[in-house]
Write a structure and sequence with these properties.
Helix content: 10-25%
Largest sheet: 5 strands, mixed
Strand content: 25-35%
Oligomer: single chain
Number of domains: 1
Strand order of the largest sheet: 2-8-7-4-5
Structural class: alpha/beta
Order of helices and strands: HEEEHEHEEEE
Shape: globular
CATH class: Mainly Beta
Distance between the termini: 36 Å
Bound molecules: cobalt (II) ion
Amino acid sequence: MKINLFLSALFAVMVSVTSGAEIVITGNDTMQFDLKAFEVKAGEKVSLTLKNTGKLPKIAMGHNLVLLKKGVSAIAFGQKAMGAGANATNPLPDSVKEDVIASTKLLGPGESDTVSFTAPADPGNYEYVCTFPGHFAMMRGTMTVK
Ligand code: CO
């Protein structure tokens, strides 16, 4: 009986380590994320992949995905990044990273990048945005933590 309890406890630990959310989002040449909202559970591991499914060159139509801390709006952050010197090769200046939970690399056509992070413990809405110059008004979405 003791062994059974131990094994089920061990199994529970293994499940909690291996479970988590896997989110895949694409960005394309019309400046759209295909997924504008998704949900995760507070404190769970999240694996977030961005794929650039477009064909235009990275210098003209690169995409990244920047997940923002609670209360930071995608539009306001996009403007702040531009003000801090965001450009087509460095769309996420170091000086604005204090507002960021996680971010992918800047991706050219056919490229993808996966970032892993722990979902915030605080339930609510967290916005995400592409900070390639000119994209933040259209390429944005919301992660809801339940
Ligand atoms: Co973009």
